[in-house]
């Protein structure tokens, strides 16, 4: 198996000691870029392929070095020292973050070769070996960077590591099938069975996604993850539809219900973007409802997990 | 389906009752030992010191009041009252007198001193001025040596004011031969003395002292036999009557003669453990490899039921908790938690390199679950061939959240000991003493707690050209503003370290001589090889292996400070050394409630940051944690930064000019990757910051013919000694706690527990052959179920595979700890690992409690 170690990709985080994204102790690599833009997304910095800069006002020294550094003039300060950022002008050069002396500006997104990334992942190799863990690719959607993802998966396999992926399956069928042979565990999201609602809340149709899931499930075991979102799919009918879809597939190991949380909200502010969930005044879910959904899924004949329970 | 998890049975009602008796007791000082030793010393003036010590032990053992606790199956108590303590005026006494009125209400480890007891002690203390080990030690010390101690560079307070302890004696010899066998050894050695050897004069005194001590110890056991017989005669409950009759019979057989049953083995063991702590106030009298020397007696006892054998073991576990000790107010903040550090181990290999985990090893794990109290300090030895089943079982016990067992790695400790000249067989048989210190059992006088050495303070002094505040304490090695690169700063740091370690060695050796001349211990010495062969006490160099082990803390503070300077001053040039120095001398613009910044540097802090902010932080943290435990991939770094800035930025808009600038400098310095995140640059520089200390220490020799060896663990001194350290370049504010042992600074290991463990493993633990200490804290959810156990086992093995030396765990949620601070009455059973030992959480000083709470909690 030939591996292109010099293939480059864009990632925005590496998270060690992850326990809920596949077996054993795992490291998650978060890849940039997502074909969806779900309202509730708790990693909005992941959605664009290019790097984005997050601004934490509490850390800002108001030294205005970012203003001078930005060649696009996306950053300006008013007379009384209030910082203004124009997201539409920014090209993600990172010049501003590079000169920021505190931690007020942080670049999310960096380009890295498979080789360098593998070297970083190797730091956890004794944990992988001892625990039967490995590497999970997440995002964004890792399949957006298919060449990079495939080479990275192959390189992980060459180290003898277990591999897993978290995907939307919103990509060309051919590309997905290139990656599948190197993945031990596939975790795929389903947000909604209704095409129109799916389009409203995620920005895309669900037709391609569902077709792809059927294709992958034909020959690979999968876990289906369902974010349970108030006002979006928080009804017995909507969860029931997903459960029935899952039950009809051959290789579904489990449906994992992920209750809504708003921890990502602050990130929208730091990105200078709107948190659309506020339009819905969504509240967190109660256990009673979640347990009801669990029994729906189980009645359909599929094992169900809620959150990170094992 | 969980199959690895075996669960734990409930302790018997007897064990529960014995435990409650200790929880319900008010620790109280008793005057009897102090009176008896004083009376004896008055009678023996002019005699050789070793004989005076033996006669003192004899008088104490003959006359000290004794008692049998309700429900107890094993005889032998230090005090008539439960959980009480005695006083040892031959080491030091003046602090007791000073605390007569305050010891009952002080912050750490309060003790009641009844009026009558205070009066009796006051009488006794009249005898002692000029006669103690501490006074002799002081008279040996030079002024610079005393100054360094007064300014918080180090303290040798442990042995300065108390006995040495820190030994694992030959319990096996007593079990097999009895005290009668030891008397016979001494008599034979005495008979073989030749007048041609001038040393034989002193040797004969030593042998006589041993014989006097052991005869008195046999008599002491017989006093318990008599008492039990009397109590049995009066006892109306038939079952208890039979027990008392058997305890009486046991005390007539052991410790004088070999043990013939498991019950007698337990009884014989206990008399050794107890009498050592009557002879001297030294703590960390450690049973060591209990499963090895005790198991043959369990295996041979074919009549005993498993449940009763377990109950006897549990009973010993309880009795470790009945022993108690008071220290001066300040020392008790460093040793918080009524701790005696009686470290007991199971598992590991024997001297031939064969795994010797046995059924008793598993019973000890059950005892830990049954008793669930602060003592003993319970450890397992780990090596590559540790059975999985045993490690899973140990992890299952850790998961209960009592803070034990701690785990020690043979694969690092054995070569570390060989590097100190210990042969392979002895090294393989090592045991753990006190907090974390390895030694060869019954062949070593390790002097393991020789000092707390504050290397963060050495950095503070280095950054002020040898000054601590206004006092010129060390050599002049350059003002901070004049350092042009990290290399020249490290040179200055090394010079200061060299200077202060020399003073440390002087202080330790002064104390060492004082113990040698004034407090030889014949009872202890006869159970340490080769004192009988050499005809001298442990304190005079009778042990085969002799060490002095002063331990450092503040390693991560220094590493992080060096890394921050390198990045922001020398590489990015965002701040100059002069600006940084000025900001530090203004406490980075933050308020200093103590006013010490003003006294030291003639500057004021800013006015920022009220303590109310902490409450908000807690509330936010709690909310975040709850959600995190439910689901989601959240940028944890970011969250922690948010929380931190929430508290520190509170007054920023109001602050003006310089104050704001100093606060900005703090924030710039904090934009650094810290030790604990598996980043090679900062990890290596942290390693160097610690190794510079260790390499200085190992240059020195002690008067017993042994070598100094460094350790790296703080007990809880990192909180106390932080109070002497000015602001540091890593943004740490003045007087706040320092990093604990080899652990990352609280809250700085943001890449999760595995990255933190890998950083810690990089420090080069072999040179710290006096022990290192790594605290990890987990929330129960990360360890739940069989998956959790498997992950936990995997983490332990991976950490050790990467040459970690020691690790211990707190598995408790933060909410529980906070509630225990608010409602101590509801949390008497809450035991936490403080740093080398477990302590009852509610007995800790508030600041130590806060420090435990703020240690990074790894929840996912």
From TrEMBL, chain A:
Protein name per UniProt: Pyruvate formate lyase activating enzyme
Catalytic activity: glycyl-[protein] + reduced [flavodoxin] + S-adenosyl-L-methionine = glycin-2-yl radical-[protein] + semiquinone [flavodoxin] + 5'-deoxyadenosine + L-methionine + H(+)
Oxidoreductase is among the record's keywords: yes
Cofactors (names): [4Fe-4S] cluster
Domain 4Fe-4S ferredoxin-type, first and last residues per copy: 51-80, 81-110
This protein's UniProt keywords: 4Fe-4S, Iron, Iron-sulfur, Lyase, Metal-binding, Oxidoreductase, Pyruvate, S-adenosyl-L-methionine
UniProt-listed SUPFAM superfamilies: 4Fe-4S ferredoxins, Radical SAM enzymes
Family affiliation: Belongs to the organic radical-activating enzymes family.
MF annotations from Gene Ontology: 4 iron, 4 sulfur cluster binding; lyase activity; metal ion binding; oxidoreductase activity
Stretches assigned to the Radical SAM core domain: 20-303
InterPro entries per the UniProt record, alphabetical: 4Fe4S_Fe-S-bd, BssD/PflA/YjjW, Organic_radical-activating, Organic_radical_activase, Radical_activat_CS, rSAM, rSAM_sf
Domain of life: Bacteria
Signal peptide segment: none
Organism: Megasphaera paucivorans
UniProtKB/TrEMBL annotation, chain B:
Pfam family, one: Gly_radical
Coiled coil: none
Gene Ontology MF, one: lyase activity
Top-level taxon: Bacteria
All copies of domain Glycine radical, residue ranges: 740-860
Family matches, as PROSITE patterns: GLY_RADICAL_1 (PS00850), GLY_RADICAL_2 (PS51149), PFL (PS51554)
List of residues that carry Glycine radical: 836
Keywords tagged on the record: Lyase, Organic radical, Transferase
Chain ranges of the PFL domain: 13-733
Gene Ontology CC: cytosol
Gene3D superfamilies per UniProt: 3.20.70.20
This protein's name: Formate C-acetyltransferase
């Amino acid at each position: 198996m030939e591996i292109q170690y010099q293939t480059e990709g864009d990632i925005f985080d590496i998270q060690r000691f992850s326990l809920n994204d596949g077996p054993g102790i795992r490291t998650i690599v978060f890849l940039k870029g997502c074909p969806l833009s779900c309202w509730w997304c708790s990693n909005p910095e992941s959605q664009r392929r290019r790097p984005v800069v997050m601004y934490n006002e509490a850390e800002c020294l108001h030294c205005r070095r970012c203003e001078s550094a930005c060649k696009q003039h996306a950053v300006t300060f008013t007379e009384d020292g209030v910082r203004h950022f124009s997201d539409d002008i920014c090209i993600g050069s990172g010049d501003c973050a590079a000169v920021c002396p505190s931690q007020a500006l942080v670049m999310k997104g960096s380009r890295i070769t498979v080789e360098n990334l593998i070297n970083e992942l190797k730091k956890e190799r004794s944990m992988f070996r001892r625990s039967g863990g490995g590497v999970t690719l997440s995002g964004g959607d890792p399949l957006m960077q298919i060449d990079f993802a495939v080479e990275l998966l192959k390189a992980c396999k060459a180290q003898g590591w277990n591999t897993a992926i978290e995907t939307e399956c919103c990509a060309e069928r051919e590309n997905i099938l290139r990656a599948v042979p190197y993945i031990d565990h596939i975790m795929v999201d389903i947000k909604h069975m209704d095409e129109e609602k799916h389009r409203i809340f995620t920005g895309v149709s669900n037709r391609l996604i569902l077709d792809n899931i059927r294709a992958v499930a034909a020959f690979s075991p999968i876990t289906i993850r369902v974010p349970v979102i108030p006002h979006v799919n928080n009804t017995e009918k909507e969860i029931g539809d997903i459960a029935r879809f899952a039950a009809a597939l051959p290789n579904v190991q489990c449906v994992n219900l992920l209750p809504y949380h708003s921890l990502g909200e602050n990130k929208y502010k730091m990105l200078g973007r709107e948190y659309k969930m506020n339009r819905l005044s969504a509240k967190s879910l109660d256990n009673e409802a979640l347990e009801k959904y669990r029994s729906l899924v189980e009645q359909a004949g599929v094992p169900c997990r809620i959150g990170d329970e094992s | 389906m969980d199959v690895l998890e075996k669960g734990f049975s409930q302790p018997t009602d007897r064990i529960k009752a014995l435990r409650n008796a200790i929880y319900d007791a008010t620790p109280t000082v008793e005057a009897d030992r102090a009176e008896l030793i004083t009376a004896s010393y008055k009678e023996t003036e002019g005699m050789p010191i070793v004989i005076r010590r033996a006669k003192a032990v004899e008088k104490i053992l003959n006359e000290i009041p004794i008692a049998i606790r309700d429900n107890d199956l094993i005889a032998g108590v230090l005090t008539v009252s439960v959980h009480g303590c005695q006083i040892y005026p031959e080491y030091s006494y003046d602090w007791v007198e000073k605390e007569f009125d305050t010891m009952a209400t002080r912050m750490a480890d309060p003790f009641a001193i009844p009026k009558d007891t205070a009066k009796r002690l006051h009488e006794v203390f009249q005898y002692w001025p000029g006669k103690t080990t501490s006074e002799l030690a002081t008279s040996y010390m030079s002024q610079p040596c005393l100054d360094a101690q007064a300014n918080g560079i180090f303290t040798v307070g442990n042995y300065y004011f108390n006995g040495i302890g820190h030994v694992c004696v030959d319990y096996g010899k007593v079990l097999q031969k009895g005290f009668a066998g030891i008397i016979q050894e001494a008599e034979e050695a005495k008979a073989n003395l030749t007048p041609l050897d001038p040393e034989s004069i002193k040797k004969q005194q030593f042998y006589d002292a041993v014989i006097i001590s052991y005869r008195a110890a046999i008599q002491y056991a017989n006093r318990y036999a008599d008492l039990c017989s009397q109590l049995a005669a009066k006892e109306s409950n038939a079952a208890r009557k039979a027990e008392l009759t058997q305890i009486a019979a046991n005390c007539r057989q052991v410790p004088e003669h070999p043990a013939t049953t498991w019950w007698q083995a337990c009884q014989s063991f206990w008399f050794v453990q107890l009498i050592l702590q009557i002879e001297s106030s030294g703590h960390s009298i450690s049973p060591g490899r209990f499963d090895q020397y005790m198991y043959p007696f369990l295996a041979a006892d074919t009549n005993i039921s498993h449940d009763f054998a377990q109950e006897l073991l549990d009973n010993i576990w309880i009795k470790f908790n009945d022993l108690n000790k008071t220290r001066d107010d300040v020392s008790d903040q460093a040793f918080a938690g009524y701790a005696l550090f009686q470290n007991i181990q199971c598992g590991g290999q024997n001297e031939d390199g064969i795994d010797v985990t046995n059924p008793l090893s598993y019973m000890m794990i059950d005892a830990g679950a049954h008793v669930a109290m602060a003592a003993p300090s319970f450890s397992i030895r780990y090596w590559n061939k540790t059975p999985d089943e045993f490690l899973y079982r140990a992890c299952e016990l850790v998961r209960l959240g009592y803070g034990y067992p701690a785990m020690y790695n043979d694969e690092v400790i054995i070569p570390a000991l060989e590097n100190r000249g210990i042969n392979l067989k002895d090294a393989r048989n090592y045991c753990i003493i006190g907090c974390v210190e390895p030694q060869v059992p019954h062949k070593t006088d390790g002097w393991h707690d020789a000092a707390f050495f504050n290397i963060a303070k050495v950095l503070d002094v280095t950054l002020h050209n040898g000054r601590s505040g206004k006092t010129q304490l060390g050599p002049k090695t350059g003002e901070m503003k004049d350092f042009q690169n990290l290399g020249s700063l490290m040179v200055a740091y090394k010079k200061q370290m060299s200077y202060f370690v020399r003073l440390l060695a002087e202080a330790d050796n002064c104390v060492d001589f004082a113990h040698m001349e004034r407090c030889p211990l014949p009872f202890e010495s006869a159970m340490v090889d080769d004192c009988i062969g050499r005809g001298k006490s442990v304190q005079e160099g009778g042990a085969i292996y002799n060490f002095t082990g002063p331990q450092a803390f503040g390693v991560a503070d220094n590493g992080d400070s060096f890394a921050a300077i390198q990045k922001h001053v020398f590489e990015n040039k965002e701040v100059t050394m002069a600006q940084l120095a000025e900001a530090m001398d203004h406490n980075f613009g933050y308020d200093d409630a103590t006013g010490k910044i003003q006294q030291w540097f003639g500057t004021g802090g800013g006015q920022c940051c009220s303590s109310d902010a902490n409450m908000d932080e807690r509330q936010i943290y709690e909310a975040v944690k709850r959600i995190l435990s439910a689901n989601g991939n959240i940028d944890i770094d970011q969250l922690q930064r948010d929380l931190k800035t929430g508290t520190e930025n509170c007054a920023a808009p109001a602050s003006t000019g310089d104050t704001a600038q100093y606060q900005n400098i703090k924030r710039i310095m904090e934009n650094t990757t810290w030790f604990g995140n598996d980043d090679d640059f900062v990890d290596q520089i942290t390693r160097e910051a610690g190794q510079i200390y260790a390499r200085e220490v190992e240059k020195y020799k002690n008067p017993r013919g042994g070598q100094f060896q460094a350790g790296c663990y703080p007990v809880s001194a990192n909180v106390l000694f932080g109070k002497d350290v000015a602001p540091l370049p890593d943004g740490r504010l003045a007087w706040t706690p320092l990093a604990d042992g080899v652990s990352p600074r609280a809250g700085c290991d943001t890449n999760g527990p595995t990255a933190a463990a890998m950083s810690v493993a990089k420090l080069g633990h072999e040179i710290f052959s006096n022990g290192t200490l790594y605290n990890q804290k987990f929330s129960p959810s990360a360890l739940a179920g069989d998956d959790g156990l498997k992950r936990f086992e995997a983490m332990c093995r991976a950490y050790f595979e990467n040459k970690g030396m020691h690790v211990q765990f707190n598995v408790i949620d933060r909410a529980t700890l906070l509630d225990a601070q608010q409602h101590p009455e509801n949390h008497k059973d809450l035991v936490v690992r403080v740093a080398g030992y477990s302590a009852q959480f509610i007995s800790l000083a508030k600041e130590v409690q806060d420090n435990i709470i703020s240690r990074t909690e790894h929840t996912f």
